[in-house]
Design brief:
Length: 190
């Protein structure tokens, strides 16, 4: 006697391809974008493959290099680690969204003036991370390099070279443009 379950019984409880997708809205660079994507799609892939925003780069795809850094609700995040569907309603800013019209963001200008790049692959992530880092320090969030005496103060954290290097340590540059990156951020940091 055949005890193999019927095909209908085997398929019961399985998701169909349509169940693997959702429609949701992300606010990208100030514009609402309604997308229907597979649940496994990362923010990075949504930006690059579905919206044509190629500033954020796929470096390691493991959240270790920072090339994909974007701002999510004003805080820096590795977009390769974020599922797009989980960011419903979030405000995401990419390097393309930092400029105001033809006027570059002050950090974009500083990176150009200081020649804080070589190949440029990591630069969009570096710039987005620097924007987020400056906001974090302005909000009083300390880092490992923040002096003990500054921890008692609820005000902004001063951004000297050591503080900048510590806060930017999640963004790697294979070309080694670190000294110029720090100088560019110092030019803009309050």
């Amino acid at each position: 006697m055949d005890t193999t379950p019927a095909k209908d019984e085997r398929d019961a409880g399985r998701l169909t391809p349509a169940d693997d997708r959702s429609t949701f809205t992300l606010h990208i660079n100030g514009t609402a974008q309604t997308l229907t994507l597979d649940h496994r799609t990362t923010v990075l892939d949504a930006l690059r493959e579905h919206l044509g925003l190629t500033g954020a780069k796929k470096g390691c795809d493991h959240g270790q290099c920072g090339a994909c850094t974007v701002l999510v609700d004003g805080r820096r995040a590795n977009s390769c680690l974020l599922l797009a569907v989980a960011q419903q309603g979030s405000r995401i800013t990419t390097v393309e969204g930092l400029a105001e019209g033809d006027r570059l963001h002050p950090l974009q200008e500083a990176f150009l003036e200081r020649d804080a790049l070589q190949c440029g692959y990591c630069t969009p992530g570096q710039i987005c991370s620097a924007v987020g880092m400056i906001a974090e320090s302005a909000d009083g969030f300390p880092s490992h390099a923040t002096p003990q005496e500054a921890l008692a103060d609820d005000g902004p954290v001063a951004l000297g070279p050591d503080e900048i290097r510590e806060r930017m340590s999640g963004n790697l540059c294979r070309c080694g443009a670190y000294p110029r990156i720090v100088e560019a951020i110092e030019d803009v940091a309050p």
